[in-house]
Structures are given as C-alpha cells and as structure tokens.
Write a structure and sequence with these properties.
about 240 residues; alpha/beta
Amino acid sequence: MAVAPVSVPGHIAIVMDGNGRWASKRFLPRIAGHKQGVDVLKRTVRSCALHGVKVLTVFAFSSENWRRPADEVSALMDILVVALSRELNQLKKDGVRLQFIGSRQGLSERVRQSLDTAERETADNKVITLNVCFNYGGRWDVVHAAQLLASAGEEITEESLSAKLSTSTCGDPDLIIRTGGEMRLSNFLLWQAAYSELYFSEVLWPDFDEAALEAAIQAFASRERRFGMTTEQLPASKNASA
C-alpha cells in the first residue's frame, strides 16, 4: 500500500450528528435542526471542493433510524425529496456527482425516484463526488457484499469483498469526522474505516462551519499514517511507490 505525504484527504466521511440537540437547545422542533443541517451540508460540499477533496461521504439516515418517531422519519424523507428538487440544478453547475448508498428497500416510490433522478442527472460531474448514505448500515454493507459474491459463486477474499462494497468506486475514506461530541462510528463504514484517521468534534452539525472543517483537515495533516508499518519504513515505502 502506497504511503504519501498528503496534507488534504482525498476522501472525507462525516457522521453529521447533533441536529436534534441543536434544535432542542433553541426550543425548536427536532426537524428544524435537520433542515439547518441540510444548509450546512451544502456549504461543506463547497468547502471540500475548494480544498481539493474529491469524495465526501455523509451519513444521512441509518438503517437504525427507522426506530425514531414516525413523524420525524416522515419529515426526514420530505426534507430529502425537497432538498434534491431545490438544489439539483446548483449541484450540476457546481460539478457535484451525487450517489446514494444504502438499501432502497422500505423507501417510498417518491423517494426512490428522487434518488434515481439525482444520480442520473449528476452522473457526469467530476469536481467532487457526494456519497449520501441513506438507509445505510456498515454491517448491512458487508453482508450485502458477501451475498453478492456468494450468489455469483465467487471466492470471498478481502479484495473481492472490498470490490462489492457500496463505496468500491470511491475507495476508503482517509478521514472520518463525527460531529456532536459522540466518539463512536455507529455502524458507519465499518469495513472501510480500517485505516481511516478518526476525528471527533464537539461542534453540533448545524454549527459545523469552515473553521471546524479546517481544524479537522489540519489535524489530519499532522498525523503519520503508517498502515501497519514503522515510522522508519515510511521513507523507503514512499520512494518505492514514487
């Protein structure tokens, strides 16, 4: 595995946590926090593109989120559909390629059509890829990949399994950020996170701004990524991969 001195991660993944708490602190309904979170995501996509990040993967709705109150789940679905309808043209202008990762089972026809349209309309964009993990779980991802291999009669190896994961075209994240102060992955990109740098921010997602993103990128740049090797091996590895 090539190791290179990289100051900006090529692939950032974010657990966008804290929307409900942000709203509660302001005596607002939880859904107000989710709406604010959409605006923050728009700004974060632009900021990542300006930094040279090529892939941004965000955790929007987990397979466990179906357990939330029905009115909140319904509102989240509506926010997604409305946001896609409102922002699609701008995303196309900005060169953002949208991909939705996760199971389509359980989603309404209205939601599925919105996802399909957004993916189709942005398929040729190349500035940055935005992977939206929706109805997604890391364990589901691994099981689904294994099922694909088994049904095709293919051998299950690390390489073959990785090739069947939902993020296979984008590679593993270099940096995983979780906002909101919690320090866990919560079933997000479990396989892909094997050698990701983890960064936990106390900032609630609706307050996550350019300065917070810059702090995460600076923390990433300060770390030494050894991928199981020693520090002394890294120069030789870099020279060998040059």
